[in-house]
Amino acid sequence: MSSATPVLVITAIRAVTFILKKHIVCEIAKVAAQQLTTTLTNTLAESITNWLVDHTIAVLAPQIAEVHTTSQALARMAQKADILISSLNKAKRLYHTR
Q: Please, what sign has the CA dihedral across residues 47, 48, 53, 59?
């Protein structure tokens, strides 16, 4: 700046520059905070979802295996019951034929 520029104008220009710098820094910080929040939210949500899925499967797997084993045992018992019923019916017929 030339020496012909009044001190008051120079001070005003410096004040405006200071205010603009502060405003720009605040805007950059605001955008950075929003980006960080979005990134952390998405990452945490994905991590929590994966964690929940993994742990839910880990918790339910033994119960599902037990249900499967029990259903197979019940199917075998039902077959044996059918055989017993058939045998009882045959015995009943034999008894009534005498």
A: positive
